[in-house]
Write a structure and sequence with these properties.
The protein has a 15-stranded antiparallel beta sheet that branches. It is of the alpha+beta class. The longest helix has 30 residues. α1 packs antiparallel against α2. The chain has 2 helices and 15 strands.
Length: 289
């Protein structure tokens, strides 16, 4: 992913400013930077999966399972079951539970590999403009990294300055426990708000453009850092055809023990470039897929 390689570059630059090479708590290090980027990628994919499965239920309350492959962010390798069962009508106020089973390895359209189960639950309220969805991880892995816990997000249909048409705005409450393949454990707490500003309601997900804001605190084996989106991130799904990285603009500010760096994703072009600024020094970062 684009973010992984950018932030790994950030990690290497930040480490050069450390006066004590044995001190891993003052600056972002490679392991923590990589973990942070991988958690970001998981949040985006899980948000897509959960939001799509809830939306499919409202599009077809009797048989809403999965859209065709051109419209869906999932692939045919995910098995989806529901309570009440598919084919059974749902009544207003009834709780719906959907289980998305990725088996031992299911590759999404963006190339990320998921395994295990996500279970989502919500109250069927077709006339409501705000919906709360609970989702639980069960032996769930995203690119071989384990994620645990029961989480919620709120989807509100509303108009905003970025998109005057009524569209979904999703607020994810971040409260995650993450175990890396090497056994390192990270926790993340905070909030991530994502809204679709272009492409909502069309037949294909590839024309979607998202705006993301928020901030979070990540704690790992080497300490704690705060990440804040200081200029909204923009995600273009169409960039999948050019580069697997999808973030095309926006700035994240990362602070650890008073040391600050900013990461600028650019002007909206589907390229593989970003600019890192540390202590007034700028570095051109080339990002690969």
């Amino acid at each position: 992913m684009k973010a992984t390689k950018i932030i790994l570059g950030l990690a290497l630059v930040l480490m050069t400013f450390s006066c004590n090479k044995e001190d891993n708590t003052g600056y972002v290090n490679a392991d923590d930077a990589k973990a942070s980027a991988q958690i970001d990628a998981m949040n985006d994919d899980v948000s897509n999966v959960v939001e799509e499965q809830e939306a499919n239920t409202y599009a077809d309350a009797t048989n809403g399972r999965i859209m065709d492959s051109g419209s869906s962010k999932l692939t045919a390798c995910a098995t989806i079951t529901r309570v009440p069962a598919f084919g059974t009508p749902i009544t207003v106020g009834q709780t719906v539970t959907k289980t998305i089973d990725f088996g031992t390895g299911c590759t999404l359209n963006n190339g990320n590999v998921l395994s295990g189960i996500i279970t989502i639950s919500f109250v069927y309220q077709p006339e409501a403009t705000s919906h709360i969805i609970t989702y639980t991880f069960n032996n769930f892995y995203h690119n071989a990294i384990k994620f645990e816990g029961t989480k919620t997000f709120t989807r509100v249909m509303m108009s905003t300055a970025a998109n005057p048409d009524v569209h979904p705005v999703v607020t994810m409450v971040l409260d995650l426990t993450v175990t890396m393949p090497n056994g390192n454990v990270y926790t993340r707490e905070g909030e991530r708000v994502r809204e679709i500003i272009e492409g909502y309601g069309t037949e294909s997900w590839t024309d979607n453009i998202y705006k993301i804001t928020g901030s979070w605190v990540t704690t790992g084996p080497n300490g704690t850092q705060t990440s804040t989106i200081t200029t909204p991130l923009h995600v273009k799904m169409s960039c999948v055809a050019v580069n697997k990285p999808l973030i095309v603009s926006g700035i994240i500010t990362i602070v650890r023990n008073g040391n600050t760096a900013t990461l600028d994703y650019g002007d909206g072009t589907c390229d593989n470039l970003a600019v890192l600024t540390v202590n007034g020094n700028q570095y051109n970062i080339i990002i690969g897929n």
